[in-house]
Amino acid sequence: MAAAQDSPVYLGFDFSTQQLKVVAIDENLNVVHQNNVQFDSELPEFRTQGGVHIHGDRLTVTSPVLMWVKALDLLLDKAKRAGLDFSRVRALSGSGQQHGSVYWRRGASETLQNLDPDQNLHQLLQGSFSLGDCPVWMDSSSSQQCQDLQAAAGGALRLADITGSRAYERFTGNQIAKLRQTRPDEFQDTERISLVSSFAASLFLGGYAAIDYSDGSGMNLLDIRSRSWSEICLEATAPHLDRLLGAPLPSTSVLGPVSSYFVRRHGFSESCRVAAFTGDNPASLAGMRLQPGDIAVSLGTSDTVFLWIQQPRPALEGHVFCNPVDWRAFMALLCFKNGSLTRERIRNECAGGSWELFSAALRDTPLGNNGNIGFYFDSMEITPPAVGVHRFDSDDNKVGGDPVEEVRALLEGQFLSRRLHAERLGYSIRTRVLATGGASSNQEILQVLSDVFNAPVYTIDVSNSACLGSGYRALHDETDSPHERDWPSGEIADILYACRRGCRAPLFAFKPRCGHVSISKVSCVGLRRQCNP
Length: 533
Ligand SMILES: O=C(CO)[C@@H](O)[C@H](O)CF
Description:
This protein is of the alpha+beta class. Strands 1, 2, 3, 6, 12, 13 and 14 form a 7-stranded mixed β-sheet that branches. Strands 17-18-16-15-22-23-26 form a 7-stranded mixed β-sheet, sandwiched between helices.
């Protein structure tokens, strides 16, 4: 549905691991434009694989910050050429892969405030970063710093109680500690540290953007109850770290108007507002408008299982973040590093690189895969901390070669693991599973998910809820003065919607304001196999 040419639009950006995406929505929440830049194929000069560089130690994983900057230049040009009129943009927000960190060189603030509209960002910011290759969420090289932080906090459980998580290698505080110890000159030359989300917001603001509570919860530095930096954690990480981070803000904050650079170079309106950016998973939670009892499964580079909770229950596994929508609430999350990259490897090896053959293999194999299952930790897994490929036959004997039908063995292993770890944390799946992320557009993969979780699976019309959630947040948080807004209570409207299999079934859609986003249901076949990965 094309919006009227002069009606306002709202932009949601997502700086994710493999690509930069944008979704434009109108006031009725209809998607009027979406676009993306794939890092590997469209910016080959950075020579990334899956958007990252995996270093020789197989533990250190980084991404070039200038690749993200150049991707934004490219994306804005692509969107403009495709006809998106930036003067209609009333507000924008966005998300970034969580935990990654960006190190602004001394003097960068001055550069950000005085960008020359005749040049692109990539040229203007060439010398603005004290560290060119940024640690990202796939890094697992900061184990020593994790041990040091846990010792300083009084143990793993104490740290989890303060920050929502025990120490994790990918969490930003431990990465900062490692950088200070191993790259002291670069660290000394740093005047500001951003998350990927607040780095992206800074580009649009023309100045350093605050870290929001929700994404800041993924640093092992923020006290999730007081929503302020934990003194114990800051002191254990680096001296005067609060000055480098700036004060955190509510995720619903409006940070200010877009910078004059975007007005003069890209035709944005001077009144266009920038709402706080947040992490990709918190943005997905906003985009999917979870209801109590829902559980969301994001099938992306990482797979995540997350849900909206009212009270924090930190544990030694999984994470509790401040809620991005309601500052009084929280969100629980489990992260599984071996997600789409592992599915793509098995697609390449067992289905000739074709998703259609991958899906056919799932259609042609029975639930439970005749007892064959596998756990594929191509790189060091986060949940559980394990590595390697482990296949089992129907007698639970470890088998070396490819088990019969490895495609189903992979998916049932992945989804059983996700369900088991969620239930171990007390998050039982009571109503429905909301799926998002790239793989959520594959019907056969969703069917396996539905079977394993023994619950109906719903998807939303765009497989990228983080972008959509950011567009919703831009629409909702836009205000005349930067202050915190409560998210509206969404209406659950009961609508009849032909699910993809043609049957008509009463489904729920959320209907914030006057629009609605349709969702489709994948029927639940029921679980016939229990296995303890
Ligand atoms: O580490 C994660 C969450 O804790 C991942 O889902 C990243 O956010 C992916 F970008």
